[in-house]
Design a protein that fits this description.
The complex is a heterodimer of chains A (about 650) and B (about 100).
Chain A: H1 2-22, H2 25-53, E1 60-70, E2 73-81, H3 83-106, H4 113-131, H5 136-154, H6 162-192, H7 197-204, H8 207-210, E3 213-215, E4 219-221, H9 222-237, H10 246-249, H11 255-265, H12 268-276, H13 278-282, H14 285-306, H15 312-332, H16 336-363, H17 381-395, H18 401-415, H19 421-448, H20 455-459, H21 466-491, H22 515-538, H23 540-549, H24 551-558, H25 563-593, H26 595-612, H27 617-637
Helix pairs in contact in A: 1-2, 1-4, 2-3, 2-4, 3-4, 3-11, 3-16, 3-21, 4-5, 5-6, 5-11, 6-9, 9-12, 9-14, 11-16, 12-15, 12-16, 14-15, 14-19, 15-16, 15-18, 15-19, 16-17, 16-18, 16-21, 17-19, 17-21, 18-21, 18-22, 19-22, 22-23, 23-24, 25-26
Chain B: H1 6-26, H2 31-55, H3 60-90
The chains are: A mainly alpha (about 650), B mainly alpha (about 100).
Amino acid sequence: MFDLLISLAVFLPLAGFIVGSLFPERYKNNHAPLICTAFLGVSFVSTFLLAINLKFGQIHYTQLWTWFKIKNLRVDWGMLIDSLSLTMVLLVTFISTLVHIYSLGYMHNDHHKGKFFTLLSLFTFAMLLLVTAPNLLQLFVGWEGVGLASYLLIGFWYKKENPPTAAMKAFIVNRVGDVGLVAAIGFIFYIFSTVEFMPIFTKIAVSSYSKQTLHLFGNMPAFDLIGLCLLLAAMGKSAQFGLHTWLPDAMEGPTPVSALIHAATMVTAGIFLICRFSNLFELAPIAQIVMLIVGSVTALFAGYTALTQNDIKKVIAYSTCSQLGYMVMACAVSAYSVAIFHLVTHAFFKALLFLGAGSVIHAMSGEQDIRRMGGLHKSIPFTYIIMLIGSLAITGIPIFSGFFSKDAIIESLYNSHMPFSNAAFAIAIIVVILTAIYSWRLIFIIFHQEPHCDEQVSAHIHESPASMKIPLFILSIGAIFSGYIGKKCYLNEGLGFKWGNALMHIPLDHHNVPLFIKYLPLLISILGIMIAYVLYVTRRNIADYVMQKCSFLYKLSHNKFYIDELYDLVFVKPVKVLGLLLSKGDINIIDKFGPDGLASGIFKVSDCVKKTATGQVNHMILAFIFVLFLMFAYILCVPYLPIHLNFIGG
Amino acid sequence: METITLNHCLVLNGILFTLGLLGVLLNRRHLLMVLIAVEVMLLSVNLNLVSFSYFLKDYAGQVFTVFILTVAAAEAAIGLAILTLYYKNHGTINVSSATTLKG
C-alpha cells in the first residue's frame, strides 16, 4: 500500500515527462501540458494519502531493485520515507502541481509549451528522486538530475541572448558544489564502507568512527572534513555566498521555473542535504562554525544587494538567497527542524511572490524593470493583494507564516552558545530590516508610485486568467496559515507529527528568551516597512539623496559587490585565454599532422593514381596485357624461385 | 624443298597474333579497325589449334575450331552492334574520343 503510493508519487512525474515527450511535435503543445499537470496532481494526491496513513516518526523503506553490486558494496534504487523526506515530497509535489497549473495560463502562447511542461515534470521527478533517496548515490543522481533539468529550463528561451549563458552559468557553478558532494561520498564510503543512509546514521553515533581522522592538507577529523564537503555541495545548490552567482541569473528562465527553483525543487536541496546529515554535523564543530559564517555572510550580502536591484525578479532572487542564508544559519546552530520549518514557509511565500511577480510581468506585457511600473494597485487588485500577502509573510508580520519561522530562527540563534553566534544573531536582526525594506520597496514602487510605463503598455494592463489566479489563491492561503500549523508540527511535534530519527530535533527553549528579544524582529520589521514607505512613497528625494551621498555603498550593492566581474577576471578570462591557446596548438599541430594531414595526403596520392586512368581503350588493354605477361613470366619462373616466393603451389 | 613443320606454323601464328595485338594497341582512329584486329587475333589462335590438331593427329582440335568460329561470328555481330550504337550516340567511331572512364 505505502510502496504503491510512494512509487506513484515519485514516478508519475517521470511518466508525465516520458509520455509528454513521446508525442509528435504537432500534438505536443495540445496534450503534453494537460497530461503532465494531471500526472503531477495525482502524484500530489498519493503523497497526501501517504502522509495521512503513515505514522510520522517511523521510517518506511521501499526497495525497488538493485542498481549495481561490486564485492560487498550493493547499491539499490529505493525510497526512504521518514518525516524529513515526506515533508519534502509533500512540499515539492504541492508547489510543483500549482506551478504546472499556473504555467497553463502563463505559457499559453508559447510555441514550445509542450516541451516546457515535460521539462517541468522532469525537474520535479529529479527532486523527488533526491529527497526520497535511501543512499548517497541515488541522491547524487537526483542532485545531478535537478542540475540538468534546471539547465534546460533556465535556457528554455534559447533563441534569446541571455538565457543560454545563464543556463550555462547555473550548470557550471553547480558543478563546483558537486565536487564537494562527490568528495563527501568518497570520504563517507572510506570511513563507513557503505553509502546507505541507515547504516551510516547508526555508525555515526559510534565513537570509534567519530574519532577517525583523514589526512588531507594535514590531519583533520573525518567528520569535519565530510561536513565541509557536504557544506560545499549545499552551498552550490542552495546558492550560498561564493557560489550564489547562478541564482540571480537563473531569472532568465520563464517565471514559473523561477518559482519552482526558488520555492521547492532546487535551492532547498542543499538545506535538505545538511538536515539529512544533521547527526554528522552535530559531531563536526568546525564545519558548523564555517556553516554559520557562510550563512550569515550570505544572508547579509544578499539582503543588501536586493535593496538596489531594479529587476523585479532579481530582487526576489536575492531575497531567496538571503532567506537561504537564514536556513543555513539555523542549521549551523543545530536548529535543523527550524531550518526545515522556514524552508516550508519560505516555499509558500516565495512561490507566491514569484508567481505574483509573473502575474505583474504578464500584466505589463513582459516588462520586468520596476522603474517602468507603478500605480498598479487599481488596475490589477488581485495580484496586488497576492503580492501584499507574500510581502507580509516574508517580512514576518504576525499571523503570516514568515513570522513564526523567522522568529524561531532568531530565537535559536540567540539561544546558541556557539562561537560567533552573537555576531550571527546581530546579522540576523540586520537582515530582518533589510528584508522589510527590499520587500516593501517592491510593493511601493510597483503598486503605489505613479505609473512610469508608456501608453501602449498601460492600455494593455490586464488581470491574469483563472488558471493563474487559482494557484496564487491556494498559495496565499499556504503563505498565511503554514506558519501556525508548521510551528505546531515541526517545532512542537504536535498534530500527530513526529521527527523521529529523521533529523536532530532540539525543542526550542522559549523561557530562556527575554520578551524584548521575542518582539525585536517584529518591531524591526515594522520599522523597515515604515522606512520603505518614507523612502519610496512620501519623501522620495531622501532615497536619491542617500544614493548620491553614499554612492560607493550604492554602487557596491547595485553591482552585486562586483562578484560577477571578479569571477570573470579570475576564472572566465584566464580559461578563455588558455582555451584559445590550446585551440591554436590543436589546429596547428594535432590537426595539421593528424586528421587534416592524413586527408590531404590521401588526396595527393589519389591525384597521382588518377593520372594513370586515362580512359583510353588502348591503355587499358596495354595494362591488361602487361599484367598477363607478368603472370606468365611468374609461372615460368616458379621452378627457379626460392620456395617462399612460390604462391601457386606445385 | 623443305617440308612445312609445326614450327613454321607456330611462327606464322605468332606473327599473326602479334600483328592483331599491335593493331588493337596502336590503332587510335577507327573502332572498326580494333574489331578487325581482335578478329585477326582470334583467327591466329584458331590456326594454332588447327596446326596442333593436324600435326598431333587429334581431330578434336579442328572440331573445336568450328565451334569457336560460330561463337566468333556472334561476337563480331555484338561488336558491330555496339559500334553502330556508339556512332549513333557520339557521331564518331574515333577510339581516342571514347574516354568516359577517365579518372
